[in-house]
Design a protein that fits this description.
Layout (H helix, E strand, L loop, with lengths): L4 H9 L5 E3 L7 E5 L2 H9 L4 H6 L1 E2 L4 E3 L1 H4 L5 E3 L3 E3 L7
Antiparallel strand pairs: 1-2, 2-4, 3-4, 5-6
Length: about 90
């Protein structure tokens, strides 16, 4: 069974963010440890090893989740993680 975008976001948001910056989408980053546990979570969300490796900073043991999360979400903050904001039209 395929996961919904919200279920994928829940998995991605279960990963601990070590460091992040959210000044703009192009300059933003959300670093986490490149370890087996985090890779398993990302694989459960539907990512391939190749896709995960693309977000990995070799030699540093760090993965950048920002591009991964923005595949399913419109917003990111350190407190909320990745999420989709509901816009109210007045």
């Amino acid at each position: 069974m395929d996961l919904t975008n919200n279920e994928k976001l829940q998995l991605i948001n279960s990963i601990e963010i070590l460091s992040c910056a959210t000044t703009s989408k192009e300059m933003a980053f959300a670093y986490t440890m490149d370890n087996e546990k985090n890779r398993e979570i990302l694989c459960k969300s539907g990512m391939t090893e190749e896709e995960i490796n693309y977000q990995c900073y070799r030699g540093c043991g760090v993965l950048d989740l920002i591009n991964i999360g923005f595949k399913y979400a419109q917003c990111f903050s350190k407190n909320k993680g990745f999420y989709n904001e509901i816009v109210k039209i007045q």
